[in-house]
Amino acid sequence: MNKSTLHIAILESSKIICEGIQAILYQSDMDCRIRRLGTLDELIELLESNPVDILIANPLQFVNREKEIRKIRKSYPSLSIAGIDFGMMHKPSTLTDVTFTLYDSSEHILHLLLKLDKKSQSHSNEKEGEENLTRREVEVLTGLVNGMLNKEIADALNISIHTVVRHRKNIAMKTGIRSQSGLTIYAISKKIISIEDIDL
Amino acid sequence: MADLIDGNPYLLLMLQHFNIDFRVSDRTLLQLCHQYGISERLFLSIANLYNGSGTGGEQPFTRKDLLQVIDFLKSSHNYYRFDKYPQISAYIRQLQENHPEKELKLLEKFFNEYFTEVREHLDYEDEVAFPYFITLLGDDKYKNDRQVYSSREYSDHHTDIELKLKDLKNLLLKYITIDNDLDLRRKLFMSLYELEFDLYIHSLIEETILIPSGVDIEREQNE
């Protein structure tokens, strides 16, 4: 597993709580860099120029700014958010990935954050466009380069046209190739189909 | 102007599309514009695109500006048609001859089909789109009868050209195995990138200058 420095931002205006979380993190064997932020706007500014893997935040900071949080999550899909539960939340917030309370043990908090780290790592792998196609995608691709229509592929694989279209989108995203003739060459290079199948 | 070209040699391509001679001597940009009867605004807008920033965005351009934009675009069509694509085509042909793998034969076929599509698109712009704009810009009131075409329709047209070029690049960068021949392959890549860059500017000019102005004029005339 690739062990890299974890970038953590703490969004909390209480100095006591900030210092406390920071102490727990620094005393663990977690390799991390911590930034402290007072306001959401500071976070937005930070994200523009620096990587942030995990945000630990007081959910009160999100009040009335839910839209902006969703936008941040969309623009930075690898960012995970851990909320601090002050005992005032009646239901888990949809804006955070996990929450912990001020009374949780250090071990528990670290465990939660490490789990988030794994999540963000798997996310960034996906994002790098590693072009490993799934078995289904390979099947759709094979149909495609054999000149089958979406409908025909759907029937042959017993899936809906909608699903075929979704697979096609994924194929294009993963391979970076969008045209059918380009995909044919891709499929041959990857030995998904044999060149003998193609009329030259 | 010579300093500007030193800073960004791609501006040469722009000069050529404006039909301005490369021997700019010590003339300033302003003097050059006067000499060739091009408005400073238009020249700067396009130069800014070549330098990687926006046009500055303020319309309107005059009708004379827009007619010059069309000439500019036509000239870049000729650059694609008679210079860049044939050059790339020759590189791919050479590559295919050096490496008898069937994949490359397929790549050549891919390129030739693509080139045919591009030519059709360029012809379409030259024969349908540009004349439409020229009529629109004409002095005599353009009558709305038989309006088979509109500026917005025009903008739907050219994404495909850039997409397939990306495919070609990706195939060569990521997938197709070719042994050695780095010289030839580098030349091919450089040509592809040059073409990509100019095509990109080309569509920016169409999208940020020509089409918005066309839409404005259409609105005026419909009032």
Structure overview:
The complex is a heterodimer of chains A (200) and B (223). With 200 residues, chain A is of the alpha/beta class. Chain A has 2 domains: 122 residues, Rossmann fold (3-Layer(aba) Sandwich), CATH 3.40.50.2300; 63 residues, Winged helix-like DNA-binding domain superfamily/Winged helix DNA-binding domain (Arc Repressor Mutant, subunit A, Orthogonal Bundle). Chain A is built from 8 helices and 5 strands. In chain A, helix 5 crosses helix 6 and helix 6 crosses helix 7. The longest helix of chain A is centred in the middle third of the chain and has 22 residues. The radius of gyration of chain A is 23 Å and the shape is elongated. Chain A starts with 5 loop residues before the first strand and ends in an 11-residue tail after the last helix. In chain A, 23% of the residues are buried. With 223 residues, chain B is an all-alpha fold. Chain B folds into 2 domains: 49 residues, no CATH class; 160 residues, no CATH class. Helix content of chain B is 75%, strand content 0%. Chain B contains 9 helices and no strands. In chain B, helix 6 runs antiparallel to helix 8 and helix 8 runs antiparallel to helix 9. Chains A and B meet through helix 8 of A and helix 6 and helix 8 of B.
